[in-house]
Amino acid sequence: MGKKRKSGGRSKGKKGGVAQVQCSSCNRMIPRDKAKRKTSYKTLVDYAIGKELRQQGTQIERVPYVRYFCVSCAIHRHQVKIRSADERKNT
Ligand SMILES: [Zn+2]
Known about the structure:
24% strand, 23% helix, two-stranded antiparallel ribbon, first zn-finger domain of poly(adp-ribose) polymerase-1, binds zinc ion, two-stranded antiparallel sheet, alpha+beta, 3 helices
């Protein structure tokens, strides 16, 4: 049977297996190398106060938080697009 993707949609290479992570949207368990990672930043300061402080030139700390999404959720949230056979071969 032909393969849709050379990597099988993963980046583990010849490794046997990788750790599982939980999808932040649907809670499904997925391999870490297959999951789509999204890093967002949160501020600990209230938005209105933070806006005023920023105008005065204050540096406000941003706390990164990482979320993992399964392929289904990543497509649903438009983080990745469905690509045609030719486009898939590019990268
Ligand atoms: Zn999901």
